Protein 1
Amino acid sequence: MRKFGTLASALALCGSLVLAAPAGAQDSVGVNAAIRNSVQTRSSTSGPLRPAQLRAPVRLGDQFVTGPQSQVQVLLRDRSTFTVGANARMTVDRFVVSENGGSAVSVARGAFRFVSGRTARSSSREAIATPVGSIGVRGTIVEGVVGPDILGLLRAQPDVPPFTGDEETMLLVVLRG
């Protein structure tokens, strides 16, 4: 009887491991498609930063921090791409593959570019959250910068009035396509 109990426990453990593996795989919303120079990542806000790895899975809650002259491009499962430039901070908040689809990322600082993927329709819900607001994306290319790097771009333009707000939360958005 004791052997049966041990065997049943072992089978239950193996069964739970087999069932747990697909659940972990489903958490992946994309992969690191390109990494240039110093890119750090962490699985949650409490984990330590570690070097990002090319082709490593990207999961909900993953955060990216890029260094000077650095960049990371994340390819999401719906073929959307999200690229973050130098000195940036970005978090993958949400990803849904369905008829309506949708993804959401938060950009706390730095330059970014989002190109919607194959499921992007007028009903899909792509969103980019920044310190000052959210950008809803409906099948297009969005580029932007969050933070003081914007001042360098604006100073080079004629007839732009001086900026008087919070430089850390400044937001510049360009719609393409």
Protein 2
Amino acid sequence: KRKVKLILLDDQTNPNTSVNNVQQLITQDHVNAVLGSCTDSLVEPDALIANRMGVPFVTPCAATNTFGATAHWTWAWDLFFNSENLTETPFNTADELGLKAKTNSRVAIIHSNGKNENIIGTVEWPAWAKKHGWKVVYNTAVPPTQTQFTSSLQAAKAANADMLLVVISPPGAIALRKQMVSVGYNPKILVEEEGGEPLQFAQALGKLANGVMVGGYWDPSFPFPGAKQLMAEFEAQTHQTGSQHIADTYTAAQILLQAIARAGSLDKTAINNQIGKTNGMFAVGHIHFNAQHTSTLPMVEEQWQNGKNVIIAPTNRATAKVIFPLPPNG
């Protein structure tokens, strides 16, 4: 048996820093494998480095449809949700919970101009809006690192959009929610993907996070082995509130360590081959990688309520009632 040394490097939510970290881990630290970061704009550049340098790379937190189409993967593996499922979920939720009938069916979109975020904002959300009977009245792209959204929010307000859909990194998502108050923009539904996922989003915003929706893929209430225990142990050990990200990141590490154990070796090819043979139930659900090196998790709609992410749809998996409309000041 071998001891495992875990090296943690802070990517500062910066793709350039993240890529440099992966290069350092491989060329200077001579790691046997890499565990990925979070969000497509960080994960995919990192995975390309590992793939080129022949090092096993297991990651959560990159949309499986776009990750799978980014490259012909040999060494990189991804478990997360499909962005097409993610982007339809707010519209499905509005239909199932009867929210659409209480709005003017007008939607505004603010999205990062990163590759995958651009697809979400310019292709997927507009397509689902049309299918579900919503009218896109405002749509704008912003740089991934932008944190000033006053003009965009004023335009969305002027367009009288009752639903605002946002996909941007955490610093931007936090800043945008605060600036909504300053410009007096009060849509009835606010969805913040990517930046609205981490627990730090709710911690930074306090009451202002209440009512914000975000696509979800895990909850300790799900009937997966170790799901409830994972949340309990995480909160007991860290004294922090757990979020859905503890499940996919925990599972990524499990997959890697189990592959190393099955390989019985630190040979990178042997480890990589065993990662590809993963097929079983984990705390996040069933994982089985396809030919594109991805394993897709099913979606639910979550909402921040009093510092916790609760499930509001579909109703057969809900753990709380929806907050509607969005409280202007939390």
